[in-house]
Predict the structure.
Amino acid sequence: MATKKEVQSAKLVDEYLAGALAGKAMDMEAYLKRCPPDLREEVRLALEGVGFLVSSYEPLLMKSGGAEAVGRRIAEAIARQQRLGEMEERAGVQAALGRPIRAPDALGWLSRIVGIPLQQDPQQPARQVAPVLLYRNREAGALLEREQRDRLQAAALLSKAERVARRFLDEAGVTEPPISPYEVARMHGILVAEQATKGCDGCVLIEGDSAAVLVNAAIESEERRRFTVAHELGHVALHGDLLQFRREALDEIEQETDSGIEAEANAFASELLMPAEFVDREFARQVPSFSVAEAMQTRFRVSFTAAALRLVKRSHHSCALLFTRDGTVVWMARSPEWRRYYVPTGTTPHAGTVTAGLLQGEEPARKGYPTLASYWAPDHRADDDAVVVEEVRRGHAGSILTLLYDQDA
């Protein structure tokens, strides 16, 4: 059986040949730098010319699925790049207009780029050009709604989303963070266009083997734009058989939920940008704190909220992350070890918490502070003196992030 390094090397050769056959100028040394050191000489021979194809490339071909399978992948890669080139050309013409795109016009704009006729959702009024959600058919829409309601399958669906993200990375030949979602999209023949939009921050249109993503260039944070791209790629990879068009605001994209297509797309984006392999090895065993989240933010080039969420969900410790907006706890994420306390959402933080102090304008120390657990979990009466470590940070748009760590669990 081929090792992971051998398969990675074979994919690099596949990618190089696909580009060369498509008429692109290829930088051999750049590809060799991405190759495992102990296989570079073998890969160098494979890249030097067709004359070495049988003698040098065949062993790697056979280990990665055989010459026929690799030849098919090369043909598919060439076709993807040709489609991408056509979409980029149309996108250049459209972007040259230099005006912000309004949400109702997003479907038409992407339709012209992908090269398909504008399609109208039969369940929407004729005057509404671009519905927020366009299903391929009513049966698919009903299926998707059932999946959203079926929380029993949530964990399995999120696990599937992460597996698909890992495959997406492997097929793109991207292995080392920080990962560029733009490069991953390009390797899969998916167009990503950044342009100022009004009324939406992320859109995706999927038609057959073609897909285009539109990201609002007015999003100031590069990290949040990167996550938006990765999120929309999740819709392409996971929901292409159900969804044709979707547009959404940044708050919808960053909303933490346990089930539904948004949760799946976020799970995909988190794994794509912060692969579990690296999170578990470098951060998951550390005592959870916002300083660890800051280190993850730098390592993976993601927003602080995305890093803190990923840290909590992969942590080996008992911890939870809460998001408060307008004085109300909107959502909560927890580590697998967080079991002792139930923290209700939709409530106002207790006056004795550090979070409540921040809401009142106080500036807490940048470290954890012991807080009575019953302040956050009012139904817990097993031990009235039990405490959790509470750490808070201001988020975007007046929100507050709260990290709770149960060091006695």
Summary: The first helix runs from residue 4 to 21.
